[in-house]
Design a protein that fits this description.
The protein is mainly beta. It has a single domain, classed as Glycosyl hydrolase domain, family 43 (Tachylectin-2, Chain A, 5 Propeller). It is 5% helix and 44% strand. Strands 14, 15, 16, 17 and 18 form a five-stranded antiparallel β-sheet that branches. Strand 11 and strand 12 form a beta hairpin. It binds beta-D-mannopyranose.
Length: 333
């Protein structure tokens, strides 16, 4: 089994609460940093550019409540962000599905195309759906339009084709009254999607990830499988708590869950996570991996208001899942 590889050298002392360390300089980006008036800056997709620059494609909510995406670039991924002077990707009149905004981008580098694929929520009269765009430079974008109709969001493309037929794979989260689970769909051409199946189910009852889950940043490719950071939504009398947890999927067949952690690894705690437009939401759409190949920089939003970053070791996360995770069984849900 691939997931048992390399575990001998791994530290196993990690507890779920120590897998991610908040950057002391958080928040790293706020509305006050913006070159034009905006309400909030959050849910950024992330990419490491070929020259080592970190790019965050931030969701920016304007003072009408409509979101667009604006790129911010930094040499070290923490400081001295250079923000595009105007929106980088804004709702376009030729795409009515974007009339109420574009939100929550997840960025995947696709080596075969030598392009970045941006999966984002397009908010139109039918509700929130998933749209896909391709870009080489985050300056011009080639929109493929709506790939998952409403109500659907939290989508990310996997970086390569799978199986004998070379099908693309997309993770997404259609919403159904009975439960919002994480699904996988397959496509021969990035435009036509089918063979839909559930990838990970929301639990029930009192769990932190009961009733509503969704992928957070894109899947992380590791020697043990695809590592998923996903969010769980706990509804309470004073609103919803958004937290982040871990699961691991088979590298050849990403529909097969190998391990799921029971505990969340990041939840709202700091002021910038508990005060803002949506108090108690920590929500991530992007990460980069540092040059050491192991240090994950998770870019996440505090309270749907600002951008923050936390760092963690991918091998420690895998070791934690090995020790504390278990394959999902029907009685869990
Ligand atoms: C989710 C998404 C995100 C948002 C989060 C917390 O459902 O809509 O855009 O950040 O809720 O409010």
């Amino acid at each position: 089994m691939t997931r048992r590889r390399n575990t001998a050298q791994r530290p196993t002392d990690a507890s779920s609460g120590t897998l991610l360390t908040r950057y002391p300089g958080n928040p790293v980006l706020t509305a006050a940093d913006w070159p034009y008036p905006v309400n909030s800056v959050f849910n950024a997709g992330a990419a490491m550019l070929p020259d080592g620059t970190t790019l965050l494609l931030c969701r920016v909510e304007d003072r009408r409540g409509i979101s667009h995406l604006t790129a911010a670039r930094s040499a070290d991924g923490f400081n001295k962000w250079v923000i595009d002077p105007k929106p980088t990707l804004a709702p376009h009149r030729d795409f009515p599905e974007e009339i109420w905004g574009i939100e929550d981008p997840r960025i995947t580098w696709v080596p075969e195309m030598k392009k970045f694929a941006v999966a984002y929520t397009s908010f139109g009269r039918g509700g929130p759906g998933v749209s896909l765009a391709l870009t080489e430079d985050f300056t011009s974008f080639d929109r493929l339009g709506v790939v998952m109709p409403p109500d659907d969001k939290d989508a990310t493309l996997l970086p390569r084709r799978f199986g004998d037929f070379g099908t693309w794979v997309m993770v997404h989260r259609p919403a159904a009254p009975i439960g919002a689970h994480i699904w996988l769909s397959y496509s021969p051409d990035l435009r036509h999607w089918g063979s839909h199946r559930i990838m990970l189910m929301a639990r029930r009852g009192a769990w932190w990830d009961a009733n509503k889950i969704g992928i957070s940043p894109p899947l992380i490719e590791t020697p043990d499988g695809w590592l998923m950071i996903y969010h769980g939504v706990r509804r309470t009398a004073s609103g919803s708590i958004y937290r982040q947890g871990l699961a691991l999927f088979d590298i050849k067949d990403p529909s097969r869950c190998l391990l799921r952690g029971d505990e969340w690894i990041l939840g709202p705690r700091e002021d910038y996570e508990t005060k803002g437009d949506v108090a108690g939401a920590v929500f991530a759409c992007g990460y980069t991996i540092a040059p050491d190949g192991d240090t994950l920089r998770l870019y996440y939003s505090g309270a749907d208001t600002c951008m923050a970053v936390a760092t963690g070791s991918i091998s420690r996360m895998l070791a934690w899942l090995e020790t504390n995770g278990r394959p999902p069984v029907d009685t869990d849900i």
